[in-house]
Each structure stands twice: as structure tokens, then as C-alpha cells.
Amino acid sequence: MKPNILPAIRSMKSLEKLTQTDYKTCVILDTHIGHLKSMMQFIHSKHLHPFIHIDLIKGMSHDEYACEYIIQSYKPKGIVSTKSKVIKKAKALGVITIFRVFIIDSHALERSISLIQRIEPDFVEVLPGIANKVIERIYNETGVKVIAGGLISTEQEVNSAIESGATYVTTSEERLW
């Protein structure tokens, strides 16, 4: 078990694989609202602590009301979202927040830093996770812990992200768990 990895779960097969590791925390991606209840029952029965990426739940809205419903109904460890209103609602409801940002150019970087400073999430997930200089700058300018995610597929990329200041790395690459 690598202490800085947050396994990203995209299927029940990946979730079952996770239960064969020592990891207790994960991020749920790409699920359908109809599967969420059984998935969360399984997760809780295995004493796992999931973050739910609310923007990637198919079949429901991705707003602050959906966030409130998910938190009250499924009691996740935290919420992941690209939407500042969702992060604010999750913070108000007392769960850990991960604000996900996509850094595609310098304008996106400046806008993201401003948003992070305004909404003060617990963590910010930077995509792509291989953008090491961006990870370092966001951490230095906001003081918010950074999670590197997206396009991470080797141990070297995990180590580089951590060396650049990332606290965690999310990856669906099961061999890195």
C-alpha cells in the first residue's frame, strides 16, 4: 500500500479489487444513481471511506441539492466536484471537500487559484496530475492541500506529483494501488 494513493473506482470490479488491498479510502467515479445505493451498502459493509464525485453520477442533477441528498442518504467521507456551490454546500454539511480543477492554460490556472482562495476547499484535485509545476504553484499560492489526478499511470508520475507538493494522487490504474 502506497500511503499517498487514493484509488479511483469506476466499476464494481474495481471496487471488489480494492477490497483485496489495505486501502480504506477511495473516490467513486462514473456511477449511475440506480447503482449508488447497492454500491454504498457494499462500501460500508467493507468499512471503506468513500469520496463521491458528484459531477459523475449519471441520472441526477449535479447541484447543491443533489449534494445535500447524497450526503444525507449515503454518508460519504467527502464530496468531489468542479462546482463551487456544491463544495460550499458540502462544507456546510460537514464533510471533507475536494474541488477538482482542470488546468489547460494560464487563464484556467489564474481562475482556479482565485476560486480556491474564495471557496477554501479541504483539498484541490489538479488535472492533469502530471502538471507538476501547476501542483506546486497552486499549493504555494493557496495553502490548500493538492491531489494530483488524471493521466497518472506510473510510479514515477506518482512520485513526481508527491515531490511537487501533492498530498495524494488519485488513479484508476489498479496496479498502482
From TrEMBL:
| Domain of life of the native organism | Bacteria
Entry function: Regulates expression of the glpD operon. In the presence of glycerol 3-phosphate (G3P) causes antitermination of transcription of glpD at the inverted repeat of the leader region to enhance its transcription. Binds and stabilizes glpD leader mRNA.
Q: One Pfam match, by short name?
A: G3P_antiterm
Annotated GO molecular function terms are: RNA binding; transcription antitermination factor activity, RNA binding
Name assigned to this protein: Glycerol uptake operon antiterminator regulatory protein
Q: Name one GO biological process term.
A: positive regulation of DNA-templated transcription
Which controlled-vocabulary keywords does the entry list?
Answer: Glycerol metabolism, RNA-binding, Transcription, Transcription regulation
